[in-house]
Design goal:
Alpha-Beta Plaits, four-stranded antiparallel β-sheet, alpha+beta, 245 residues, 10 strands, 3 domains, Arc Repressor Mutant, subunit A
Length: 245
């Protein structure tokens, strides 16, 4: 099941981080803008902003870059209005795909996303066509290192986590979307650092794909992740054992 292993996915991302660091920071910067516009620039009163800042720190975004984005969002330079759009569709072999977009140009985004689906051997569908196959969950990924499994589990559950799993080199803490911020803050207060921390769409089941299909799927994912308007891509593809993106 390595195709959707949290550790495998994180390791694969790390291999691409240097090349895409600027894009990752740009995407998180957009989320900061939206969070500030919707709830103000204070972390104390804006829970969504706190969550986005935690995500930024997990991605090693420098603190001065984070603060600059907050100031930009609350100042004169925040004239751009981003709209959140969710596209759904099918990758090769019927893989379910959800694309979360923040854009100031719907036509551009729709064209780019459609193009990525087509080039990856898939097709865009109507709203809701695959969404029912996913559940929205808070997910916190913590590197094991020298931590004690039982202690970490108790810490997570006492913080209000819905589930706790030990997988490869990481712990996976799952929460309801509503409890995500509370659980994340409780763990952070105890000095726990995160590899990832965000509210995501988690598939109920996975679709196994062969190497040929995996190549097409990876092409689609690369095109989508290279698009500045695309914030997140969720899918239920289970890549072949040993597959390296």
């Amino acid at each position: 099941m390595s195709g959707h292993s949290k550790w495998h996915n994180i390791q694969a991302k790390k291999g691409k981080v240097d090349a895409r660091r600027g894009k990752i920071f740009t995407k998180i910067g957009k989320e900061i803008v939206v969070a500030v516009k919707n709830g103000g620039p204070s972390e104390d009163t804006n829970a969504r902003l706190r969550d986005v800042i935690a995500k930024a720190k997990a991605a090693n975004m420098p603190n001065d870059t984070i603060q600059r984005a907050i100031k930009k969002a609350s100042g004169e330079l925040s004239a751009v209005n981003y709209e959140n759009i969710v596209y759904e569709g099918y990758g090769p072999n019927g893989v379910a795909v959800i694309v979360d977009v923040l854009t100031d140009n719907k036509n551009r985004s729709a064209g780019n996303v459609r193009n990525a689906f087509t080039k990856g051997g898939g097709n865009m569908g109507n709203s809701g066509c695959v969404g029912f196959m996913f559940q929205e969950k808070g997910e916190i990924i913590i590197e094991k290192e020298d931590k004690d499994d039982d202690e970490m589990m108790m810490m997570a559950l006492e913080a209000g986590a819905e589930d706790f799993a030990v997988e490869d080199e990481v712990y996976v803490v799952t929460t309801t979307p509503e409890d995500f911020g509370t659980v994340r803050e409780a763990l952070a207060a105890q000095g726990i650092e995160f590899l990832e921390a965000d509210v995501k769409m988690i598939p109920d089941t996975y679709t196994a794909i062969d190497e040929e299909t995996a190549k097409k799927m990876q092409k689609m994912l690369d095109l989508l992740e290279d698009d500045d308007d695309v914030q997140e891509v969720y899918h239920n593809a289970e890549f072949p054992e040993g597959w390296e993106e």
